[in-house]
Amino acid sequence: MIEPLLLTTTRVSTFAEGRALTGATGFFFEREERLFLVTSRHVVFDKPTGHFPDRIEIELHDDTSNLTHSVGLSVLLYEDGKSVWREGKDDGGDIDVAVIELDRAVLPAGAAMACFTPEHLQRSLDDVEAGSSVLVVGFPLGFHDTLHHLPVVRQAAIASSFGLRFQGQGFFLTDARTHRGTSGAPVVLRNAAGGKLPWKLLGIHSSRMDMGGRDLEQDESLGLNCAWYADILLTLTEPQA
Question: What 3-state DSSP class applies to 68?
Fold first, then answer.
């Protein structure tokens, strides 16, 4: 039996006019029978770096009994000139999270995936202590189990007060070794209550945080990362009129 946590996460590839651009991470979130792909917003649109893909491709297992086989699902990022992803902002500004609703009808028959739901969100911020051990599930530099098409897991720790938005922004910090390609990865905490997917979804990994004045020759990178609070998914997955 494969651990369901590894089936929550998928490799994301971005393209523009048929040209391959970057790799990233995404995960599945289900709400009232509707299925969403969650990733970082800068994966689908990033003005500062001139990153403007027109489609993404995600990798899906299409045979629950044979994980060595997978298929790619292409998802257009624009429809009639309008972006298909949902994004949000709060009092601190833009939130680096994007959500795309997936049409179940185009999924391969027998697709093997596990989905986070609103029940996996952490309701009380006070219950997560600084220093708590968490996991980041993703595809650093695209690295993964290429035979079984599964992500890898990195150990991390909560590096700021989980009950306080760091510097007034909608994210908390993690202490972990991360790389490009991890953007959009779920940050999870073991749920003592158990269940089919015994994890709490705390956040969405975004990027490494560094100090602008760091001496690149004398000072090592801080090794800290931004993870946006996962409760933003309740807003981004609300039914739209």
Answer: coil
Distance in angstroms (rounded) separating the CA atoms of residues 140 and 25: 8
What would you report as the CA-atom Rg of the chain, rounded to the nearest whole angstrom? 17
Assign 3-state DSSP to the chain and report helix, strand, coil percentages, each to 5.
15, 45, 45
Specify if 241 maps to a domain: no
Q: Is residue 183 part of a domain?
A: yes
Mean pLDDT of the chain: 91
Residue 121, in any domain of the structure:
yes
Instruction: State phi, psi for 168 to the nearest 5 degrees.
Output: 80, 5
Number of domains in the chain: 1
Per the domain annotation, does 83 fall within a domain? yes
Q: What is the mean pLDDT of residues 126-145?
A: 93
* Minimum mean pLDDT range among 52-56, 70-74, 136-140: 70-74
